[in-house]
User: Fold this.
Amino acid sequence: MTAYTATVTVRLKRGVLDPEAETTQQALERLGFELSDLRSADRFEVDLEAADADEAADRADEMAERLLANPTIHDYEVAVTER
Amino acid sequence: MTVAVVQFGGSNCDRDAVRALEHVGVDAERVWHEDGLPADADGIVLPGGFSYGDYLRAGAMAARAPVMAEVREAAAGGVPVVGVCNGAQIGSESGLTPGAFTTNASARFQCEPVHLRVERADTPWTAAYDEGDVIEVPIAHGEGRFEIDEAAHADLVAEGRVLFRYCDADGNVTDAANPNGSTDNVAGVLGERETVAVLMPHPERATLPDLGRSTDGAGILRAFA
Assistant:
């Protein structure tokens, strides 16, 4: 078994309104920053032991499917690194 | 008929639900989620609140609690189930109903009376009304914007599973009457069976006559009578 960190990034699908991101963008603009757009995402770093990177990714993928993301509104991606 | 009002850590409308159900003549009891559903539960309410502090997403944690497997099984077997507010979020997170409830377009928590148009009157939840009736029921949520992808929304409409839409006092479904940016002004939807429903507004807060301006929500709770 090898120690991995699976990083799961969950973000809203393109086209789904993100009022928190809009509010954050407005606050940045009030501070004088110039920006065209702002998107936010949730990142989960999952430490786990697995036989190989594929297995670690599969398990993180299932975590995203079953809890970390809501498929109605979210896309997600998984990246695995050895720890 | 004993209705189980399932209480999670952070539920806070469970007592109100029991009180309102008793007011319409329905025997109801609060059930702690870890104790499981009572064998004699022939109705289920998922009450409002902030279960698990809305961690991850509103309703996400409670939806994965073991009791929800029992709730889904009961729902599939025809037991009437309604999710209100956080209960609606739990219901959609657990797959009882389609779509998702997420951050209000305003990015604010909104606590205010709203008008709802009854879109179906031939369900247990709306038998007290006529189709097109306008009822006044309060909302109190930060994450009540109904989101659903286009194809699933088309199916929802085609299958007649939109139960309530936000509207103005005259029943017009308009952007101005949409408090949270919900797709198609949807405030409440049916599950695969019409005995399963979720809605963001709080019928239990518009049932007791001494509580305020409307008792229009009582008809929804009478589904259990």
In short: The longest strand of chain A covers residues 2-12. The mean pLDDT of chain A is 97. Chain A has two helices and three strands. The helical segments of chain A are 19-30, 53-68.
